[in-house]
Amino acid sequence: MDGITRIADSVSADLKRRLPSQRKTQREKLALLVATMLDVRSANLMDLAAGLPRAADRTDMRYQWITRLLGNPLVVSDEIMEPFAREVLEQASALGNAVVLILDQSKFSDRHQVLMLALRFGERAVPLAWRIEATEGASKPRRRSWRRWPRGCPRVRLMGDRFYGTANLIGWCQERTWDYRLRLKGNLTVFDGAETTAACAEKRTFYLEDVELTARRVRTHIGIIHDPGHPEPWIIAMSERPGYLRTLDYGQRWGIEPMFSDFKSRGFGIADTQIRIADRLDRLILVMALALYWAVSTGQWDALHHATPSEKKA
After folding, report:
1. Average pLDDT for consecutive 10-residue bins of the chain (314 residues)?
2. CB neighbours (10 Å) of residue 311?
3. Residue 239 φ then ψ, to 5°
4. In sequence order, what are the residues at sequence separation of 6 or more whose Cβ sits closer than 8 angstroms to the Cβ of residue 103?
5. Whole-prediction pTM value?
6. In which region does residue 152 sit, left (phi positive, over 0), alpha (psi from -120 to 50) or beta (all else)?
7. Are β-strands 99-107 and 112-121 bridged in parallel, bridged antiparallel, or unpaired?
8. Are residues 207 and 162 in contact, defined by beta-carbon separation less than 8 angstroms?
9. Measured between alpha carbons, how far is 98 from 110 in angstroms, rounded to an integer?
């Protein structure tokens, strides 16, 4: 318990530095739950309640403390995540390469789908913002605009799966001069040849430059890869002239999969939660996201100050 309390004090101090206007009671409660999450490594609220270092005789009282925090409308995930997101975006920008953002969705429970915006960081991704909706079957969340997008980055490249490879999103990226690699469905019409994207792939037309896509006639480049043994081709809309390597850049999108595993099977096991209300699940993801940031930053600090021989060589 003392270990959790010490971590909570450190998290609270960090939150105070990043969010000086945050209420003290909210900051301390959130820090305590983040520290407990790091120790318990479970999204199950009863597991968290059992590990929560609070002076309460019964686990159900600690459980109620957690549910009250998760139900607090004053805990706004976007506002709390903003300084953390800004820091990693600045670190990624300092390398001089394009800042790679990944837009993807995943089923976090039987009731909820999560649309996640993440930053590719090394060989994996870290969460920046998310939206949740209760869904039925395999339906996807309704699209909403993010309240804040990163600013000041020298170059941004957005990766998105077939759910998001639309003329609207392509036009949105073009308005902001963002690079993009957006996978397209096979039924979209390419007006320069009056064919669908799937027909172009079947004809082994690998590069289409400055073509008009869908009835909106948005102009874009398209690269197509269909490697042997793969059932479907990659049909990728891109901002740059198409080529094999530029089309292959779309593979950077897979950096989000280890992050989803951290949330689900390999890490916190969010599928075990019985939360039914989307807003409460949103704040539980906030707690896990802050725990991930702390785990990543601690690993970076340790690699810098206690580097292994291989890390020193790198």
Report:
1. 85 93 94 92 88 81 92 93 89 82 85 88 86 64 47 77 85 89 80 68 76 81 80 85 88 87 80 82 93 74 55 58
2. 11
3. -85, -20
4. 115, 116, 117, 158, 159, 160, 161, 164
5. 0.84
6. left
7. antiparallel
8. no
9. 36
